[in-house]
Amino acid sequence: MAILSQSAATFSPSFVSTRSDFTRLTRFPCRVTFRRGLAVSSCFNSSKSPGAGGFLSPDNGGEVSYELHHDFSPQRRRSGSPVFVTLPVNSVSREGGRVLRPKTMMFSLKALATAGVEGVVVEIWWGLVEKNKPRVYDWRGCEELVAMACKCGLKVRAVLAFHQHGAGPDDPNWIPLPLWVLDEIKKDVELAYCDRFGRRNIEYISLGCDILPVLRGRSPIQVYADFMRDFRDTFRSLLGVIITGVQIGMGPGGELRYPSFSPQEPNLAWPQELGEFQCYDKYMLASLNASARNIGMREWGNGGPFGTGSLMQNPEHTDFFKNDGGSWDTPYGKFFLEWYSGMLLLHGERICKEAETIFRGTEVHMSAKLAVIHWHYVTQSHPSELTAGYYNTFNRDGYLSIARMFSKYGFSMCCSCFEMQDAVMQKINPDGSPEGFLRQLLLAARLCDLALEGQNFSTNLDDGGFTQVLKMSKFYSNGIEKRPFSFNFVRMDKRLFESRNWDRFTRFVRQMSNGNIFRARLYSVGDTRFKTAPVMPEARLLYHLYQYS
Predict the structure, then answer these.
(1) In the 8-state DSSP scheme, what is residue 56?
(2) Are residues 398 and 341 in contact, defined by beta-carbon separation less than 8 angstroms?
(3) Strand ranges (DSSP E) for 416-521?
(4) Taking the domains of the chain in order of start, what are their residue ranges?
(5) Is the pLDDT confidence value at 124 over 60?
(6) For the chain, percent helix, then strand, then coil, each to nearest 5?
(7) What is the Cα–Cα distance from 127 to 95, expressed in whole angstroms?
(8) Considering only 66-70, 235-239, 406-410, which range has the smallest mean pLDDT?
């Protein structure tokens, strides 16, 4: 389905919706070979005539080829900030070998291309790719997704997700850690994070055992590195051309942090949570004990702080977090928080170092994500940040050291909540300040000259939310020295293609790019003709495909 206006750049596809086994990708002009199916080709902003039509045709069988030509001409290059769209979590089957609802996916990608979106964010789950056995990787579903994006003229940002997604098996989008890793955790539960109540968290392997051979002879850092290396080798010909960015997961939710909060999806109940220090597995305790003995204070190495209260308690009613006289600001508190945050920083540096070595020379932009934990930002102790591993208080900057580490290894920084407004959130929680938190993070990124990737927290933005994103993006990118900024919209679903939401979204993409793109028109099917069925000539087509497929 082509959905360009007649005055727009030409996009002339011919494709099949049947699935094919992806076997080889090469550089632009790229020729992608499939074991089964038809030759498919597209031309985006090329010199071909706009009259070339597209159609569906029967399967010829045998091995055929797919050709794609890109011309990154001045018309394609644009000023402003590019927008990427994160694909659904369940884009690939739980078996990992195929794209779910491929026809709907292809239509959606074409719609995004016509809206002027720069590319898509594809989450690549460790629990699906290396699911059953160590060093046995199944990239087929990911390869198919990348090929579909390539066909539509979209770039790809890959997110290498080493964490669990969802709260548990009852979650329809639940993706656990690899089964063989879960088997190792059953044998040694100390591989999982633990809080003071003995509650285990298996969203992400405890960083306390980062360099210990606890995963069938390999350390977690080695396992992550082997995964990155196999990804690089599998997609080598596309790195820096189609796959322009790789975000490396460093903790729960893909963020560099501890799993200090409830393991369910984030929601508005979070502003009530202080979080729990995750330092009670034997590997973290061994490190804490060694650090305490090194300064001659062995009694400080037996566990986390006392007096931290309950998860939902007012921090002013706790001995550790209260503003005046809280033990967070005592010599013991400073020792513990420096150790706890230092372990997190060391974990991030280990992964950054491996990633920089592995992807050196590939021309992909590497990035990592930080959590925007804003709900106690106006207090002195910032308790929810402390439990997550960010030693950030009213008199100490906890993010500059992380930004410096990213800068050292050539990483960009990704952070969320760009649509949140203090005026709205403080009605729910007067101790929070998403704008204040984000400004501090952005200033740290500017000081370290980092490229920045913004992201939204809510998946259903109104006009006010999009306006706030524009405001915060200009806060970062405007100035004498313009820093690179891009935005990841989270995420593509049926609501995006509802008429009102689609209008808002396409307007936002134009504004982010300073209006220098062609306008999306979902009310025309352009040149493409389908022999199999009539096409619904409006945005509701995609909405209904999501609804009923």
Answers:
(1) -
(2) yes
(3) 452-455, 485-489
(4) 81-266+343-514+533-544
(5) yes
(6) 35, 15, 50
(7) 10
(8) 66-70
